[in-house]
Amino acid sequence: MPTDDTAITLYRLQACPYCERVVRTLNKYGLTYRSRFVEAMHSERDVVKRISGKRTVPAIVDENTGVTMSESDNIVQYLEDTYGEAE
Fold first, then answer.
1. Distance, CA of 31 to CA of 54 (rounded, Å)
2. What ranges in the chain are assigned the alpha helix state H?
3. Each residue of 35-71: pLDDT tens digit?
4. C-alpha angle 60/2/76, rounded to 5°?
5. Angstrom distance (rounded) from CA 48 to CA 45
6. How many angstroms separate the CA atoms of 18 and 8, rounded?
7. End-to-end Cα distance, the chain
């Protein structure tokens, strides 16, 4: 399946440790992505709410697979399962 170089969009906050964990995983697998920084105020994160159904970050949209998800543990596991090296 052909992949778009920036098919993954990461919705995140500045200095968010959970967001940084996802960034480290994206970098580990050499994945390029777009960062979309969201409002610091939880109640104003309407963009994230529209895409994931929640106002929490991090959240990703992977256009390669049609997956949208939030929660750093879930995202890291998804990235490892989908893009990790098969051993």
1. 24
2. 17-28, 46-52, 72-83
3. 999 999 989 999 999 999 999 999 999 999 999 999 9
4. 30
5. 6
6. 17
7. 20
